[in-house]
Automatic annotation (TrEMBL), chain A:
It catalyses: beta-D-GlcNAc-(1->4)-Mur2Ac(oyl-L-Ala-gamma-D-Glu-L-Lys-D-Ala-D-Ala)-di-trans,octa-cis-undecaprenyl diphosphate + L-glutamine + ATP + H2O = beta-D-GlcNAc-(1->4)-Mur2Ac(oyl-L-Ala-D-isoglutaminyl-L-Lys-D-Ala-D-Ala)-di-trans,octa-cis-undecaprenyl diphosphate + L-glutamate + ADP + phosphate + H(+); L-glutamine + H2O = L-glutamate + NH4(+). Pathway: Cell wall biogenesis; peptidoglycan biosynthesis. This is Lipid II isoglutaminyl synthase (glutamine-hydrolyzing) subunit GatD. Transmembrane segments: none annotated. PROSITE patterns: GATASE_COBBQ. Belongs to the CobB/CobQ family. GatD subfamily. Forms a heterodimer with MurT. SUPFAM superfamilies: Class I glutamine amidotransferase-like. Substrate binds at residue 132. The lipid II isoglutaminyl synthase complex catalyzes the formation of alpha-D-isoglutamine in the cell wall lipid II stem peptide. The GatD subunit catalyzes the hydrolysis of glutamine to glutamate and ammonia. The resulting ammonia molecule is channeled to the active site of MurT.
Length: 243, 434
């Protein structure tokens, strides 16, 4: 009951119009439903290029796009970068998948040789590779356990020397197919190539993001585990599937 | 090797492999190895040329309708009916249709080709007419990106010598009009303004829980500024549709599941008009639409234990959403079967782009397939009640039929799940051969 009067958790979807191609809605929906099941109200706000900046965001989530959509988004990101950097510094949790993950790094050189500037939340660079890395993937994160999903990207991402990966690859390609890293983590910002969608089958990652958002408001995730039987069964199957 | 000898060899392989059972494309593979130009040479002889039908959703149904419309006008039509929709599948179908003297008794070929195979095919055979239906996210694990799919269809449009028939309401398809070769005509099929909100484009899929505001969709392009279409689907009332054909209104019956199939009928009609030219008898073509029956797995109805069961193939978010929107959930017992074999698409992320709110009232009676638990999780997060989850298709199907009571049944299923379900149903009741 403590949350009846609390402000709803404000979840901002970054660029849903341009970056939405691999079930990214599943991440937003999972945050919303799990928050509700934990007894929290939610409000979902879309942010698209040129929109007024959504103030008081508790959590940001954004996904993958066509290369064409990424150009529009990169231009807008350059404008709002100071606001995002300020939020990162405050510890606001964010989930950036695939295309947005790449643009949260320094740069992305596309398959046609153009270079998109990122906003440098992560110390990483991405170059389009000769073929797409596609298939089921299992990774292991020291903080968040086994993370299971599906990857589909042509970008090869290399982390800077000090950049912490999100997880290490157990099976699949990950950031570049070479160094067994997957994704990146800085403060409470998680970047990853995993679709699936990521959060439905990885409830621990979802609850990490929710807990981080609540912590900034001086609250904690309410006691009591949710029933994640369906997610666990889906994880078991996904981990057993061929690449 | 001489051409007749190669053909006779191929026909022999076809006969031998039909004894063995299955393998519809195998004789075509033999032909492709022995005589790579076989398909191109044979199809070049057809007086009315080759029609290629491609796009993400609706190929099979639209091809079937186009073939039926043309046959109703007295044409002899060659088609690749077995769903072997690549060059060697076409070669196999050709062998099956030829007589002992190697003659193909046909005036025109109407071929269903998926986007990747279409690109390969048009390098060998330039179609006289191509019908390009839509581009939606589908099998991104094969094609990578939706813009890649569009580029494939652009190559088909460029290779077409006579007329490219395009869907006016799909922005990625409409833009192909700029890609056609000089001298090639463009013919459009389209929707009335009233119907357009029923067909959210792939780019409208993002809105998830919040419904797309119908008025906001492409509102900057009113119909008056869009190109004139030869065939417009004006209005739909259950099985009855109103079509505008080159400015004249026609009432028709299209007894297929879903308004998207009624739109496919408009596409088939527009294409038939191009094939037939001045010889087209529009009223009789419109009447023929009423006789069309569903293609396998595209809403075909199978009677099992005296109750109707519909199989509805789902391949991608747009198709699944349209399929869900086409019937009231409470009227049916509903099963969903999701596999993740190569032919289904290995990535099940797309299920999260389908809005399942429409199933909240009726709930889902059974969820099955390799990815049953993914599907059950998806429904749980859309607050849809799921009565049972059974990954094994046969166990699930038997339980679903037993528990459906008096309700008609429908099963939404991915491609390989559909093939398995048809096989299991075949042991219980009569199922038409594919």
């Amino acid at each position: 009951m403590a949350h009846d009067t609390a402000r709803a958790l404000r979840i901002v979807q970054l660029y849903p119009r341009d970056m939405n191609i691999y079930g990214d809605w599943g991440n937003t929906l999972t945050l919303k439903r799990r928050a509700e099941r934990h007894g929290l109200g939610t409000e979902i706000v879309d942010y698209n290029p040129g929109d007024p900046w959504p103030e008081n965001a508790d959590l940001f989530v954004g996904g993958g796009g066509q290369d064409s959509g990424q150009f529009r988004v990169a231009d807008d990101l350059a404008v709002v970068a100071p606001r995002l950097h300020e939020a990162v510094a405050r510890g606001v949790p964010m989930l950036a998948i695939c295309g947005l993950y790449q643009l949260f790094g320094h740069s992305f050189r596309t398959g046609t040789g153009e270079t998109l500037s990122g906003i440098g939340i992560f110390d990483l660079e991405t170059v389009a590779g000769p073929e797409r890395l596609i298939g089921n993937i299992v990774t292991e994160s020291p903080d968040l356990g086994t993370i299971i999903g599906y990857e589909n990207h042509s970008g090869l991402t290399h982390l800077g020397a000090g950049q912490q990966p999100l997880a290490s690859v157990v099976s699949g390609a990950g950031n570049n197919g070479q160094d067994a890293t997957e994704g990146a983590r800085t403060a409470n910002v998680l970047g990853s190539y995993l679709h699936g969608s990521l959060l439905p089958k990885n409830p621990r990652v979802a609850d990490f993001l929710l807990a981080a958002a609540l912590e900034l408001r001086g609250e904690t995730l309410p006691e009591g585990e949710l029933d994640d039987t369906l997610a666990q069964r889906a994880r078991d199957v996904a981990a057993s599937r061929p690449r | 090797m001489s051409r007749p000898l190669v053909r006779v060899l191929g026909q022999g392989v076809r006969w031998a492999s039909s004894l063995r059972g299955g393998g519809s494309a195998f004789p075509g593979l033999v032909m492709e190895k022995l005589h790579p130009r076989f398909v191109a040479e044979e199809l070049a002889k057809l007086p009315l040329g080759v029609v290629v039908i491609s796009g993400t959703n609706g190929k099979t149904t639209t091809t079937k309708m186009t073939v039926q419309l043309l046959r109703s006008q007295g044409l002899r039509v060659f088609t690749n009916r077995t769903g072997s929709n690549f060059v060697r599948g076409v070669a196999a179908s050709l062998l099956a249709e030829m007589d002992a003297f190697g003659r193909l008794a046909a005036d025109v070929a109407v071929l269903e080709l998926d986007e990747a195979h279409a690109v390969h095919f048009v390098k060998q055979v330039r179609p006289r007419i191509s019908l390009l239906l839509n581009v939606m996210r589908d099998q991104l694990d094969r094609f990578g990106e939706i813009d890649t799919t569009r580029r494939m269809l652009s190559q088909v449009a460029r290779a077409t010598t006579g007329t490219v028939v395009l869907n006016r309401e799909d922005p990625r398809i409409a833009s192909l009009a700029q890609d056609v070769t000089e001298g090639t005509a463009v013919s459009w099929f389209g929707l009335s303004d009233a119907l357009r909100p029923m067909f959210p484009s792939d780019d409208d899929m993002r809105d998830g829980l919040r419904q797309v505001d119908p008025g906001a969709q492409d509102s900057d392009v009113p119909s008056t500024r869009r190109p004139d279409a030869d065939v417009v689907l004006e209005a739909v009332n259950a099985r009855s549709v109103e079509l505008d054909v080159r400015g004249r209104k026609h009432d028709a019956t299209v007894d297929l599941y879903g308004v998207y199939n009624q739109y496919n009928a408009a596409a088939a009609l527009a294409t038939s008009l191009q094939v037939l030219g001045d010889a087209a008898d529009v009223p009789s073509l419109v009447a023929e639409l009423g006789k069309v029956t569903p293609a396998f797995g595209r809403g075909e109805t199978i009677t099992v234990q005296d109750k109707p069961l519909q199989l509805l193939l789902v391949k991608n978010p747009a198709g699944f959403r349209l399929s869900l929107a086409s019937a009231s959930a409470q009227d049916y017992a509903t099963m969903i079967a999701i596999n993740d074999q190569y032919a289904d698409g290995r990535d099940v992320s797309w299920l999260w782009d389908v809005d399942f709110d429409a199933l909240r009232d009726g709930g889902v009676d059974m969820v099955s397939g390799v990815r049953a638990w993914d599907m059950a999780l998806r429904l749980d997060y859309d607050l849809v009640r799921v009565a049972a989850v059974e990954p094994d298709l046969e166990d699930a199907l038997r339980r679903f039929i037993a528990d459906s009571g008096e309700r008609p049944m429908r099963i939404f299923c991915t491609y390989t799940a559909m093939l398995s379900l048809r096989r299991i149903l075949g042991d219980m009741t009569h199922v038409a051969a594919i």
